[in-house]
Specification:
Belongs to the UPF0749 family. Keywords: Coiled coil. This protein is α+β, with helices and mostly antiparallel strands and about 240 residues long. The strands form 2 sheets. The protein has a 5-stranded antiparallel beta sheet with strand order 3-2-7-1-8, with helices on one face. Helix 1 packs antiparallel against helix 2. The longest helix has about 40 residues.
Length: about 240
Amino acid sequence: MRKLTSQISMALVCGILGFMLAYQFKVLMKQENAFNLSRENGTDITVEIEQYKKEKSALEAKVSELQNKIKDYEDAMANKSDSTKSLLKDLEDSRMLTGEVDVKGPGVIIYLTPDSKLFTNNNIGNHITDKDLAYLVNELRFAGAEAISINDIRIVLRTGIRTAGNYILINDEKISPSSRIVIKAIGDKNLLYSAMGFPEVFTDLKTICEVKFEKSDSINIEKYSGTYKFEYAKPVKE
């Protein structure tokens, strides 16, 4: 009974702190968007901008404080029992799976450098596309990649990769197909490297860009910068 109570207490506290963290991050993003909109409009609102900066700094400090509280609570609960340790391990694995934490480990790094000579009016269709990147992500996942990023944008379960005008959108962030693209993947570096070494993997890309890939003993991939929100999908209650 005591073990069950401690597990329920931990889940409630983590849930509350997680909600507060997500809320603070959402408010922070709104402030950042408002700041960018004001700057684009060229309106002379220096005082308002300074206020936004102060609020942003305060929110960043609050987010950091909440993250530390969550970590302290988890560390304290980890010493309670084996069942609690197992629960915390499951929670940590879930966070890595959803991209909520920074991760590091061995793997491969892929460099795609477009041929600038192809970016002419006669060759406007010859460039890296969303389908090329989605294909590579799929190949890396099949080779066992545990974490992937494109230009330091974390690829998570809900990530969409789509061409939008002259850019490619990934998690609502723009990357240019005319600039070098760096893909990082953490996993068994030898297996990932072998998978990328198959001739057909880069057959199409090699006609429009320079392709290089290498093993690495230490790759850092930052956490997903967005927030998860489910409006339609609901858990099934038995």
